[in-house]
Structure formats: structure tokens, C-alpha cells
Amino acid sequence: MNTSDVLVVGAGLAGLHTATLLAQHGHDVLLVERRTSLTAAIRTTGIFVRKTLDDFPLPVECLGPPIRRVVLYPPDLRRPVELVSDRDEYRVGVMGPLYLAAAERALEVGVRLSLGTRYAGWRAGAFHLVDRDGPTQVRARYVVGADGARSRVARDLGLDRNTHLLVGAEEVFAIPSTEEPPTFHCVLDPSIAPGYLAWVVNDGQHAHVGVAGYADRYPEGMRKALQRFSKDAPGLACVDRPVEVERRGGPIPVGGLLRRIGSADGLLVGDAAGAVSPLTAGGLDPCLRLSSLAAEVLDDALRGGAAALPAYDGAALRARFRGRLMLRRGLAQVRTPAAASLAFKLLRTQPGRLAARHILFGDRSFPTARSR
Predict the structure, then answer these.
(1) Which residue, 40, 227, 270, 303, shows the most beta carbons closer than 10 Å to its own?
(2) What does the alpha-carbon distance between residue 164 and residue 274 come to, in Å, rounded to a whole number?
(3) In 3-state terms, what secondary structure has residue 131?
(4) Confidence band of 370 (pLDDT split at 50, 70, 90)
């Protein structure tokens, strides 16, 4: 029987950040991850927004060049809307090395990291795990579910679970340098990205080519939609025979932050908590900010202040997302290329461009809450 102050399930960015902060506060933290390598089966596109880059010390060597230019396209790719910021708005993380750097930091501060270890449930007051040597049990004062959009920890704790999901797929290519500025290309076409967007992020080092949408609206499957999009995707005209680096894919929760994300026995962070922007589907900024709050709440609880746990209130934070939730519902209703083209008529107006700039270049991010 193993013991720990906190068991963290899932070594994505949310789990690594939570575990590191708790260990820095002097707590015994066991972090388990079912993958045998942190560089395998990466799902996120790795897009970091300016607020994240300003507020969190990410290793610069794991970030691509800054992106200031965003181009929005209708289904026929004609008359796109170009937006350029006077600030560095996005950088794409090289996620494998970034995860390894985060894991190294976690180990330095005392986190016990166990790869190839699967969370198998909570029974009889103990957390059951399965590793290379077979089943084992852990007794921990608290558990943190950082185990993705379909969190098993959430189920075991009786917390809310994600029901509003997109599915996404992306191919990453190494590309030769060009004279084109780093650009984020977004295509609104419900025939290839029903309810969301298709994209090309070309930062001059890598090109990320992807689609995402509602699974039940892909009559031929998402992979075929990605293949169709890749043939004529914008932003790749200057790239000759790109060399594929990796493929990514998985569910993306877009129903907003869940209301019940904490109990007397543990908390949820990252995708497990629905900490993803409902409109843009960006999850890296929310995962870091919510993980910081989770670590703060658990630190208070471990030091004898269990009354701090109710401060981890998803419903209170969710109220800050009413506008984005409303826009998500609107985007979900764009079901035909004709409707998407009509939306672009509004986007080309001055109010439409101002609204787009506010969404893409605005200073708002996931609300930073404090338990104290």
C-alpha cells in the first residue's frame, strides 16, 4: 500500500503544473500517467496566447516564432479577412520537449512521477492503479483528476463530466523557412469543420493543419475531411512537399467550465474540468490558471483548512463565460457553406472586424481566481 498527500492522475500540462506547485509547497505528490512516454500521443495543438506567455514562465526554446497575423476565410477561400496585431499574440509550443521540461521541473521539486501507470478506480477508501508490475493501491488525502475530457476520476468522485464535445485531428509538418510572416489561417466551412473551424498555423518552422467539429456531423469521417482540407489548405502555397512530423487528435470539451469540479476528496483540472474556451477551443491558458487555483486550494486544505475546498467552485467561474457560451451556440448553428458565407458578410464590416479583433487579440483570458 503506497501513501501520498495528493495523487494526480494525468501528466499533461494541467497535471504537471498542479503536481509541481503542490510539491513546491512541501507536499508529497504522486503523479501517474498511463502513457509510457510524455512525447507520445500528444493531442493539443499547443497554441499559447499572449496572456499565457506573459504570466507563465514557459521555456523559450520550446516555443515557435511569435505570430501576429490571423487570416479568416469563408468556404470558397475568396476575399479573406486579414487581421494584424501590433503585439505578439500567439506562439506554438513544441509539445514533446515542453512536456519533458515540465516533467524535469516536477522531479526537481520532489514529485514522484510514474509513467505506464493506469488509474483503475477508487474503491474501499483506496485508489487502484495498474503499472508494469500489476495492480497496486494508493491511499491519498486528495486526488486530482487531470485525466482528460472523459475523466474517470470525475466519475468516481461524482463530479460533473463533459457532454458537449468536439473532435479534432491535426497533422504537423516540418517546413522550410520562407519570407511569409508567421500566420494563423482559419477557415469557416461546415462541410469540413461542422460547428467549428479548419486551420493552418504556419509559424515558419512547422505547419499545423487541422480540422475540428461535431462527430455526428462528419458523414465520411473526420480523417477524410482532413485529407480534403489538406489538399487546398491556405498558407501552404510556398511549402513544397512538407515532411510530416506527427499526427494528433482527440475530443475537445467546449461546453464551458463544469459546475461541480471539486468535492471533499479531490478536484478536477484541465480538460477534465471543461477548462477550455467554449468559443475558441483553446485550453492551455485555462488549464494553467485553473491548475494554479487547484494547487492553492489543496495547499490550504492539506494544512488543515478543509474549508478552502468550497472555494474551488466551477459554477462561480462559469458565470464569466456567458458571452462565449452564447457565441459557441451561434457557431454550432452554422451548418451550411451558405450560412458561413453570410456570416462573412458581417465579418467584413467594421463592427465585425472589431468583434473579431476583440476575440482574437483581446486581453481577456480565463479568470484568475484566488482561494484566499
Answers:
(1) 270
(2) 9
(3) strand
(4) low
Distance CA 14, CA 291 (A): 6
Question: Please, which residues have CB within 8 angstroms of residue 87's CB and are 6 or more apart in sequence?
Answer: 50, 68, 361
Pairing of strands 29-33, 112-115: parallel
Domains of the chain plus CATH, in order, are: 2-361 (3.50.50.60)
Strand positions, DSSP E, 179-310? 183-187, 198-202, 206-213, 243-253, 266-268
The 10 Å CB-count burial string (b at 16+, else e) for 213-248 is bbeebbeeebeebbebbbeebbbbeebeebeeebeb
Rounded Cα distance between 188 and 76, Å, is 10
Strands annotated E in the chain: 2-9, 29-33, 47-49, 69-73, 81-84, 90-92, 112-115, 118-123, 126-131, 134-145, 165-174, 183-187, 198-202, 206-213, 243-253, 266-268
